[in-house]
Every structure is written in structure tokens, then in C-alpha cells.
Prior knowledge:
The complex is a heterodimer of chains A (352) and B (306). With 352 residues, chain A is mainly alpha-helical. Chain A is built from 13 helices and two strands; from the N terminus they run E-H-H-H-H-H-H-H-H-H-H-H-H-H-E. Chain A starts with a strand and ends with a strand. Chain B is mainly alpha-helical. Chain B starts with a helix and ends in a 13-residue tail after the last helix. Chain B is built from 14 helices and no strands. Chains A and B meet through strand 1, helix 5, helix 6, helix 11 and helix 13 of A and helix 3, helix 4, helix 10, helix 12 and helix 13 of B.
Amino acid sequence: MILRLERRSQRSTLMAFLSPVLAIGITLALGAIMFVALGFDPGEALYIYFIDPLTSAWSIEEVIVKAAPLILIGVGLAVCYTANVWNIGAEGQLTMGALIGASIPIYFPDWQSPLVLILMLVLGIAGGALFAAIPAFLKNRFSANEILTSLMLVYVAQLLLDWLIRGPWRDPDGYNFPQSILFEGWQVIPPLGEGRVHIGAIFAIVAVIIVAFMMGRTLRGFEIRVVGTSPRAGSFAGFKGKRVVLFCFMLSGALAGLAGICEVAGPSGQLQPNVSPGYGFTAIIVAFLGRLNPIGVFFAGVLLAISYMGGEGVQVILGISDKTTQVFQGMLLFLILACDTLIRYRIRLVRS
Amino acid sequence: MEALEAVILTIITASTPLLLAATGELVTERSGVLNLGVEGMMIMGAVCSFAAAYTTGSALLGILVGLYAGVATSMLFAFLTQTLMTSQVATGLSLTLLGLGLSGLIGEGFTGLPGEKLESIHIPLLTDIPFIGPILFGQDILVYISLALIAAVSYVLFRTRIGLVINAVGNNHHSAHALGYGVIRVRYACIAFGGACSGLAGAYLALAYTPQWIENMSAGRGWIALALVVFSTWLPGRLLIGAYLFGTVWIMGLYVQGLGVGIPSQLLSSLPYLVTIVVLVIISGNRSLIRMNTPAMIGQPFAPER
């Protein structure tokens, strides 16, 4: 018996919806096996992982706080990947946005005005966009592979952050801890209502709507899709591949930068060695799980935010390592890619 | 003289994992497959080899387990990209994410434990020669394996039938298929070879470079290995030079820090990544250099017409 793929005459719309569901199902099954192997009750562990975070107001808020950056970055990456532009350095762009935006309260700690917050957000966006423009420029000008250059810049950005908060930007009254001063007043993003949810969540929803509109209703969105599926056809239509590369990188960099400054001026309230628990990389999974579609990215972002919460939950309640979160996320991406094959192919088992 | 000897010895240790991983990826890419999962295969090799060596007390067994871990991880990639025809770029990325996650979970119980160090060989008389003795005859076995592998790959790729088939599959899979070569089978084999080499690279990190398990200890070396293949323009000889060049850059940072010069250590630590970008720009900007040897089918899935 061997496995044989048979090409469908057209893409299966049913499978396009079922594939993520199937992938999630298999991931949960493999997760259950993993918990049994670690010596825990799989039912209880999976409940704590994926249901428990949705049972209290406190943890739902926390899910929203974590989903916001994932969605912001994921939407941008979805645009990139649609155009066949491989930005995998969102983590670096997030870091850069965070530290450029944070430079305002660090250099002008006593400046209090609504302008401060606006300036921080704008600088965060600009920092991410400009940092993302580097791999785009290197690809357009020197055809250097953007996957490698964008990833290398993640390490550079993180080391730069590390140097700043251990050196010039370290809080003088911080007992030598590697962190900046605490931001306050207009240097912090105001929360929505009582809890921890802040404007970042609204930014994420706005980004989803704008990008969905751009991709579906504007010439720019059409250009991105054409260049992604067939660069040759795109060039006949007068679309410039290089312009698309730069646009996609700067858009996704801007959104990652915004996510970064929202983290620093939001939940953390200061610059710390780890701006994010790998949101920039997890957002790659979010983009694919969301079918590179802004609305899909929204739901995918929420699901992966739940997995972060669940990881913390099993660690606290059952003592299972929160490293399982990354395993879940990795398996999920892997299985989505595998299940997506069903959209274009039928699987047949044939006797050899 | 003694200081120079120490520097050369550390350069060799820093270069070997890069050389091992890049050698495997060079063969994989020659067959027309771009596997971006090097980092994931390497870290899986590292954690599995460390666990095996720690539990059994045998570093050699650790090497073997690391190799198998690399192959096993690479087969996930092969099944998806070759059988299910998924995108190679996305699948490779997911392999890296999965490998980093899984290795963190497996290795959690081993963090901070003293590992089993891979012993350097000692040949009486030869190793005792001052200066050149320890450098030429006093390395551990993986250093010699890495050098033997690159020589063997160079020979096989350009002097044997197998090499011709691999290059044919990588340069025009339709012609290779028409000639009766099993394109998918050749690619599976080359991906497995790449996995084995990455696994060895990981084993080297966890058994020789720093004989302990540290999460994310590959620190981007898998990605640098990928860049090295571009740097080499897919030629084994240049790959060897490139790997040692990067190993030197990696070590230079440490030594300059030791001198107490007022350069921030983070700047020196970011040197390998910055140099990678610069090198990619220089090599990729030179079109003729790239065009001459790039496998024409790289990254493209093969579906035999039926």
C-alpha cells in the first residue's frame, strides 16, 4: 500500500474550511498523547490548556491582551506571505519598534502630555517599518535572500536592546536590574475600563479591518495577490515586484513595531530584556492558521493566545512544563501545512 | 605561541558545527530542495545526543543518537514537502519552530547538569609535537568526521555517478524523471543526509562545544549554515573556507572581549549575524557567481505527470 496524491480539478472550498479544523483536531490528539507520555491525565490537561482560560473574566482579559500583538503582527505577515515575500524577522521589528518608541520616556522622563503617547506610538511604528525596510532593500538592490537577512536582524535587534538596558538606558535606581525606568502617566497606554485590556486590542481590530479592505477591495491588494501567485503576469500588468516587496516588508514591520511599543507601554510599562515571549515567531503560525486571510488571522490569533494562557495554566495547576506551548504551536503549523494538501489533492491509498 | 595555539583550537571548535550542518544542507540543496529547518534539526540533535550521553555515560553513543534525531526530524520535512508537496519554505520554518519547542521540552530535565564531554584523541608522539601536534592530531573525532565528510561530498558530487544523479535531479527534475531516476527518492535521501549532518552538528554543540544542555543553544547557527551554502555558491571547497571564516568571526568577538577593550560585548556578539548579512549581500549581488552553480530547481516541488 502506498499513498498517492491525485490532483483535484479545482481547489476544494470545503477542504479550505475543514483543513484548519482537522489540523487542530490532530494537534489535540497528539497533545493528549504527549500528556500521557509525560504522565498526566490528558483530559484534564487539555481542559486546562484550551477551555479553562475562557472560564473567568480575568483570564479572558489576559487572552485579549496576548491576542492583540499576535493579530497585529499576523495580519502583516499574512500580506507578506500572500505576495511570496518571506519576512520572518517580525520579532526583531517588534523589538526595534519597542525600543525606538520607548526612547521618548527614557530621554524625557518628566515630559507629560498626550503628545508623548502619540509620539511613542508613531516612533514605534516607524522603527518597525524602517528596520523591516533593511531586508527589503537588500533583496531589491542585491537580491540577498530576505529569509536569512530578516532573521539575522532579529539577533541584532535583541542584542541592541540588551546593550541599551544594561548600559545607557538602565534605570539608575533599579538595583542594577537590566531594565529601564518605569513609565507613568501619558507614557503608558491607557487601559480600556478597569482591567488590563488596553488600546492595543482596538489597534488589532482596526488593522484587521483595514488590511481586509486593502486586500479585497483595492488595486494595491490585487497587485499583492497577483505578484504573489504569478510574478510574470504581474509584470505584464505593470506591477513592480520590488515595490511590492518593500511595501509588504514595511507594512508588516510597522504593525510589528506597533505591537512592540504597545507591549512596552502597556503590560510591561518599562523596557525589559524580553519584550515579547516570541510573538514575532508565533505570528508566523497565526498567519498560516488564518489562511493568510485577515479575518482568519483574527481567530487564529485568539486561539494561539489561549495556548499561551493554557501553558501558564498547566504549569501552575499541574506542574507541566510551559514549554508544551511551543510544542503545541509547532505541531499546529506543521499539521496545517500537511492538511492544506487536501485542498488541492485527493489522497488515495493504492496497492503497489 | 601558546596563546595562538589556544585561539586556533577554539576556532576549530566554533567552525566544526557550522561546517557539519552546511555540508548536509549543501547536498540537500544540490538535489533541488531548500530545507530551512536546519536550526530545528540541529537543536533536536543537540538535545537528544546530550540526553543519550548523559544517561548512558557514553559520548560516542550520544553522537549516534544525535545523528538519528537529525534524520528523524528531517524525515518529517521530507514527508511533507516530497510526498504531500507542501511549500518548502513554510515547512522548513515550521520544522525549526517545532524543533526549538520540542527540544525545550525534552531538555528541561537536563538543564544545568554536567554533560559527558567528547574526549579529544591522543596519538602518542604525534599529538605531543609542540604546537602542530594538538592542532592536527589532538582534535575530537567529530572534527575529523566533518573534514572527511566535506572531502567525501566533494568527491561524490563531482566524480561519481551518484553525484551526477543528484545534480541532475536538482537542475532539471523533469529530465531526470524522464531518464528514469526516482526524483522523489533521491530527494528523500539527500534530505536524510542533510538531517544526519545537522544532527551531528547538534551533537557537537552539546558534547564538545559546551558539554551541557542550554535551551536554544544553537543560537542561529543553523541559519548561518544556510547562509554559508549561499556563500559557497554550492561548492564544497568554498564551503570549507566559509565555515572556518565564520568560526573565526564567532571566536574573535570572545577574544576582543577578553582584551578588555571598551567595545560593548553585545556588539561583538552580533558580529556573526552582521557578517552573515554583509556576506549574503556581496555574494548575492554578483549575479554571474550565483547563476553558475545554483541548482535550477531549488525550492520547486516535483509532481510527476501521470
